[in-house]
Design a protein that fits this description.
globular; about 240 residues; about 15% strand; SH3 type barrels
Length: about 240
């Protein structure tokens, strides 16, 4: 594998490990195989990691969706970046293509009535970024309750590193909250874990997923912020149009 391919697959793995450890996404204990690839990126370990990731039902359908719309492969670096961070590939996915993917979620446990309702009511302008899944679809798995705290933890957040403490990394990040039946974002200081032993220093910008710091994205924060707010604002407009 080329270094770019290794880095891309590692990125897919590191975002998938925290929810898998909690039992929320992907085949049980997949995180062990994903960690094996991260620590020893051989061809054999790469194939094992890819095989498991294709069974992450809240991840792989989106990678296929973005890839198909852009004539790429699901594990291409740009496709993985588009889903987790955000990039221009998202703009090439049509509303009808997204609706088809939403309907497919009923094959993975999302009740048919919910899948059909979400597909038919998909607001124009929603993009197939991870934030869309969190904010609009919520969860496919019945193992996690769709309350605001869990939605906030699942959302890929951006956070500025403040300091390392005995309990973990103190960051100034964000959280979702509900106000007048509308999801909004606000700043919040919190302690997060550092499971991938990132070499962090004050003022680094990291992504946070399920209370774990995932990667340093100081130069990509603007993309993540932009696409998250695009979907949040689109959802807000949908709510106002239904009032």
């Amino acid at each position: 594998m080329l270094p770019k391919e290794i880095d891309a697959l590692k990125r897919a793995c590191i975002y998938s490990i925290p929810p898998n450890k909690l039992g929320y996404c992907g085949p049980d204990k997949s995180w062990k195989t994903l960690n094996s690839f991260i620590s020893n990126p051989t061809k054999q370990n790469a194939e094992a990691a890819k095989h498991l990731l294709t069974n992450f039902n809240a991840l792989y359908p989106y990678l296929e969706l973005i890839a198909d719309a852009n004539s790429l492969e699901p594990f291409d670096a740009e496709v993985i970046e588009a889903y987790w961070i955000g990039n221009q590939l998202l703009e090439n996915v049509s509303c009808k293509q997204i609706q088809k993917t939403i309907l497919s979620f009923q094959n993975f446990g999302l009740p048919k009535s919910i899948a059909e309702k979400k597909a038919s009511e998909l607001p124009d302008g929603m993009l197939p970024h991870h934030s869309m899944h969190v904010l609009y679809i919520n969860f496919i798995s019945q193992k996690v309750e769709p309350i605001v705290k869990n939605l906030s933890n699942c959302l890929v957040q951006w956070a500025k590193v403040l300091e390392e403490t005995p309990k973990g990394i103190r960051v100034k990040g964000i959280e979702l909250f509900l106000e007048s039946a509308e999801l909004k974002l606000r700043e919040k200081e919190k302690i997060v874990h550092n499971p991938f032993n990132l070499a962090l220093k004050p003022n680094d910008i990291v992504t946070v997923h399920w209370s774990s710091s995932i990667e340093i994205v100081t130069e990509q924060k603007q993309k993540l912020e932009s696409y998250t707010f695009k979907n949040l604002n689109t959802l807000s407009l949908l709510g106002k149009s239904n009032e």
